[in-house]
Design brief:
The protein has helices at about 5-10, 10-15, 30-40, 55-70, 75-85, 90-105, 110-120. It is mainly α.
């Protein structure tokens, strides 16, 4: 699935979903999510203001689906076990340092994507 810049920027989520309870926990309509995925994978430009995508949970569900379908982990297969070990460090300062160190070892594309996702979730 290819996500347009508008979907990646999560404009619908940012404009209408930040106050939504369970934004990423409550699923959108499965048929609507599949329809949005099909539209995004099509050749035409997708208008995210279309009433078919009015439910912010459909957009959130589409984004979650895109993340699940990535061919490779954002954290990379090579670093995954190290991230798991770092997450298990008990001392907060050491844990932050270890994770920060690993994040900076990610390939540029992975680092940029992770940064965008974290910035979005922080909002």
């Amino acid at each position: 699935m290819i996500l347009s810049e508008e979907v990646v920027s999560m404009s619908r989520i940012l404009t209408t979903g930040l106050d939504e309870v369970g934004l990423y926990r409550v699923p959108g309509s499965v048929s609507s999510v599949k329809a949005l995925i099909a539209a995004l994978n099509g050749d035409e430009e997708v208008d995210m203001d279309d009433d078919r995508w009015i439910d912010v949970n459909v957009v959130a569900g589409t984004f979650k689906s895109w993340l699940r379908e990535l061919p490779d982990s954002i954290l990379t297969e090579e670093l995954y076990d190290k991230f798991i070990l770092a997450a298990g460090v008990q001392d907060y300062e050491e844990k932050c340092y270890a994770i920060r160190h690993l994040v900076h070892q990610l390939p540029t594309g992975n680092f940029n994507l992770l940064q965008r996702i974290i910035q979005h979730l922080k909002r």
